[in-house]
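Lab notebook, bench 4. Still working through the backlog of constructs that have no structural model yet. Next entry is a single chain of 206 residues. Request: give me the structure tokens for it.
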Amino acid sequence: MTESAIEFSPERTTPFLQEVMERSGQMLTACYQCRRCAAGCTVGDETGCFTPNLLIRTVMLGDRETALSNPLVWKCVSCYTCGTRCPNDIQTARITETLKKMAKEEHVEPMMPKVKEFHDAFVESGVRWGRVNEVEFMGIYESKAALREAKVKNYDAIVEEIKAQARLGLTMFKKKRMHTGFLMASGRREIKALYKKAQEMTTIDQ
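Model written out:
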């Protein structure tokens, strides 16, 4: 059984493509599907057939639903190998980050809730203090994950997650990779102002 072809509609495709290019700062139309990015993708084994070049093609065809919810967007580790290999310097990692933000803005259910919670906790901690304090950051992340599991009464998952993170934290502490000190930037007010302005601009664009 063959899948139906995606119907190409310039009226639907062009606005979405322009939005992604403007927000990511990447010229997607320069992609000629050489697949060098796909060959070097470090999470290729985790995303199945959904490679960076396919993500670009999905955006160019205006398949908004697939572009905002696919394995690569949520599993990309921003290693920038794709951009290093690309003959036209297209950084797919910036595209995945843009699509992730757009998915959050449009309240699209994330394929990997933990990734969204990790991202939210990182930004929340960074904006508050101008620096990311690891203990606070992980505390926020674990609280978000626990609350999600508590809503569906999956208490066993909460306990297992706490145990796993405790073991990881202890190992990192022994290897002096866990920093318990508190850091605060002198320019955190400016950071908060910039973040607020970015949110306001996003709201206006919508």
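Notes after review: The mean pLDDT is 89. The two ends are 39 Å apart (CA to CA). Flag for follow-up if needed.
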